[in-house]
Every structure is written in C-alpha cells, then in structure tokens.
Amino acid sequence: MTIEQIKSLLARFYEGQTTPEEERLLADFFRREDVPEDLQQDKQLFLLLAQTSDQEMPQDIAEEITAFVNKLGQMKIQPLIPEDKQRKGVIFRLKTPPKMWYRAAATVAILLAIGGGMFVHQQRTFATDPFRDTCATPEEAAREILYANDIINRSFAPFRQSTNIATEQVNEMNQTIQNATRYINY
C-alpha cells in the first residue's frame, strides 16, 4: 500500500469506519521499521493496541457484561424525586391578575430606566470625547468661535480697565520718583 492509501485508511479508522480486515492491514503496516516520521505517533498507538488485543477476555466476564447490558435495556429508570413531589411547570401564580395601572406603572418604570441609562451613556460619551464635532459646517464653527471670543472679551473688560488704571498709577509714581531723585542728586 502507498503512504497516501495508509493515511486515507487512518482517517477512516479514526472516524470508526474501517473493517477488521482494514485494521489488520494498518497493524501490519505499523509493525514495519520503515514507517515515515509523520506517522510515528500512529505507529505507537497501533503497537499498543496490538499488545492489548492479543489478550482474550475471560468467558465468564464477557457473559456477565452481556447480561448486565441486557438487564439495563429492560429496566425502567426510576426518577430521583417521586412524581407527587415533583414541581409542575408553573413556579408561582397570582391569585388575582394585576390591575391595569400596575402594568402601566411597570411600563413607565422600564421606560424611565432605559431613558436614564441612555442619558448616562450620552454624558459618559461626551466626557470621554470632548473634542468631537459639535458644528455641522465650518461657517457655523466660525460663528461659534466669534461668539466665544466676544464672551471672553466682555468678561475680561473690567480687568483690563482696572489694569489700565493701575498701570497709569504706577507710571505716575515712577514719574514722581524720577522727579524726586533729580532734586536729591543736585
């Protein structure tokens, strides 16, 4: 047999589709010394099977096993829990059906829970991605930038005025100090 035929036969053997004659052919092949390297593990398996298959099962044990299997086939399997103690399909049942407003309240609660979850998810998305686009067009973005700039300018205007006044006062003090140092140096 060729190596390809042996590999095909091996595949069928592992699927349980070989006849006893084909299995003997495989066993004879693996008893040879010149088995290819990629089939060495299969050779070990067949040599092990050959050692165990030579031993015969004692007749009385074979008869006991056969009788036990036949007895199992005729037995009716008893349930672990007696039938009167087994639970039926219904787990619990309300004595009176719920009023319509219970159903409506449950529906509203579910919708609120879903809406709250969506709100929290949206807030987390904004917190994780603060630089996402908020304007649809570049013109809209330019208007928003000018608007933000105007807000910043108006909020800093009082500080600019007080800074200008302080700068004028510092300049006047410097002028006074310079005038005073001129008179001291003379």
Which oligomeric state applies? single chain
Structural class, judged by helices and strands? Answer: mainly alpha
Q: Find the count of extended strands (DSSP E, 2+ residues).
A: 0
Arithmetic mean of pLDDT: 77
- How many domain units? 3
Contiguous low-pLDDT stretches (5 residues minimum) are none
Task: Report helical residue fraction.
Answer: 55-70%
**Envelope shape:** elongated
Give a verbal description of the structure.
This protein is mainly alpha-helical and 186 residues long. It folds into 3 domains: 52 residues, no CATH class; 32 residues; 53 residues. Helix content is 70%, strand content 0%. It contains 6 helices and no strands. The model has no long low-confidence stretch (mean pLDDT 77).
Summarize the entry for a quick read.
The chain has 186 residues and is an all-alpha fold. The chain folds into three domains: 52 residues, no CATH class; 32 residues; 53 residues.
